[in-house]
Amino acid sequence: MESLLLEFQSKIAQIPLDIQRYLVDQIDLSNRLIAVKGARGAGKTTLLLQLTKLHLPLSSSLYVSLDHIYFFENKLYDLAKQFTQFGGTHLLLDEVHKYPNWSREIKLIYDNFPELKVIFTSSSMLEIYRSESDLSRRAVTYYLKELSFREFITFEIQKSFQNYTFQEILENHNQIASQLLEEIKPLPLFEKYLKIGVYPYYKENETLYLQKLQNTINLIIEIDINAVEYLQYDTLIKLKKLLISVASSAPFTPNITKLSEKVGVSRNMLVQSIKILERAGLVNELYKDTSGIGVLTKPEKLYLNNSNLMYALAKENSNIGNVRETFFLNQFKGLHEINRSEIADFLIDKTYTFEIGGKNKAKKQIAGTQNAYVAKDGIEIGFGNIVPVWLFGFMY
Questions:
Q1: How far is CA 199 from CA 186, 193, 266, in A?
Q2: How many CB atoms lie within 10 A of CB 377?
Q3: Where do the AAA+ ATPase domain residues begin and end (predicted)?
Q4: Cα dihedral sign, 339-341-346-348
Q5: Which string of DSSP letters, residue by residue, matches 131-163?
Q6: Model confidence over 39-86: pLDDT tens digits?
Q7: What DSSP string runs through 81-120?
Q8: What integer best gives the mean pLDDT of the chain?
Q9: Checking DSSP bridges between strand 346-348 and strand 352-357, what pairing results, if any?
Q10: How many angstroms separate the CA atoms of 103 and 101, rounded?
């Protein structure tokens, strides 16, 4: 355990605090068992280390990744027992899905060491409630989204801005945009964000970012998905074919029969595959109405999860209209209910209708519709029910 403590101290010393993810101050650390889920590359490891450095007692905390060679010969439960005996109070476990029987041992740790608090991260693929020991009744779960446009700006210019609720943006978008325009030029920043700014590691090498993102996609399919679903290799290849099919024509209106023939799987397997790709953080499903959706219900439209994935997988087919819609859906996902609108692009919380477009987009499609807005690209500031689309990147 001593070597793990030394490695932890080294990591803590190196972790920067100048830029912090939005979840850092939202996690309630009074809970005894906390799960942080998120797609590969979203920044879960950095979040854990920042949480520790900012809010936890360093002398009685320990961070460890469960793919560490230490666990080739040692059990997680034994580590927790020894750590507790030496006065440990907070155990931070990264990438638990890479450790066999992780849920059983974490349950035992929770039951047998009430003085020890555990925070663990996992792939977005992992469904806590389906784990062998059903940790859902014990764990409080948070989901770490990719960088918002607001967070990306902080990475770019090292200056922080507050986030705004959806209602604040609707009611005060003109005033909010005016204040932000005194500090930033949003349009060139937004253009860059759409192409390369969604995952924090873009700062490591912007030139090679899209190539690294392609590698990340392969790792998600070959390692993260397989660690949870235990799929055969030929099925993983078919998942890649499905993803490329979506990428080349997103937003994709799936014809399940034709697509199942193209990919080479049955209808039920195809719909299940779409669900898997969504849980992996690679695609987003859009329905007219989420009530009563069954496991084998096909979505009305399929989008890639974010615009960077579009540029990584389908550069020549990255239609700007599709890019805007992909961004809009991504920023709302997990924060508000978002459905396909009968008359426009999106319906938020079953109340607010949105049409997405460029700066010349007309309002005729939503004319006469209550609570209807146009989210426009290419404008710095809006008026009335015309809102700059980039401003919705300030919701988290």
A1: 19, 10, 33
A2: 22
A3: 30-141
A4: negative
A5: STT-GGGT-EEEE-----HHHHHHHHHS-----
A6: 999 999 999 999 999 999 999 999 999 999 999 999 999 999 999 999
A7: HHHHHTT--EEEEE-GGGSTTHHHHHHHHHHH-TT-EEEE
A8: 91
A9: antiparallel
A10: 6
User: Can you tell me whether residue 301 is helix, strand or coil?
Assistant: strand
Structure tokens, 387: 């809102």
Q: What is the pLDDT of residues 176-225, one digit of tens each?
A: 999 999 999 999 999 999 999 999 999 999 999 999 999 999 999 988 88
State the amino acid at position 315 in one-letter form.
K
Q: How many CB atoms lie within 10 A of CB 227?
A: 16
Note the pTM of the prediction, 2 decimals: 0.90
- Amino acid at residue number 343: I
**Which distant-in-sequence residues (6+ apart) come within 8 Å of 147 by Cβ?**
43, 155, 193, 197, 198, 199, 200
Contacts of 75 (CB under 8 A, 6+ apart): 105
**Sequence-ordered list of residues with C-beta below 8 angstroms from that of 120, at least 6 positions apart, any chain:** 33, 34, 35, 36, 92, 93, 94, 96, 106
Q: Are 339 and 148 in contact (CB under 8 A)?
A: no
Residues 348-375 pLDDT 10s: 999 999 999 999 998 988 999 999 999 9
Q: Residue 352 — φ and ψ, nearest 5°?
A: -105, 120
Task: Give the pLDDT confidence of 167-190 residue by residue, as tens digits.
Answer: 999 999 999 999 999 999 999 999
Can you name the residues that pair with 123 across neighbouring β-strands? 38
Return the amino acid letter for 287.
Answer: Y
Beta-sheet strands, E only, within 9-52: 33-38
Here the tokens at position 176 are 């909010």
Distances in Å between the Cα of 304 and the Cα atoms of 26, 282, 323, 326, 367 are 27, 6, 9, 7, 29
Element (H, E) at 374: strand 372-376
Rounded to whole angstroms, the Cα distance separating 338 from 246 reads 20
SS3 350: coil
What pLDDT, on the 0 to 100 scale, is given for residue 241? 85
DSSP 309-347: HHHHH-GGG--HHHHHHHHHHHHHTTTS-EEE-SSSSEE
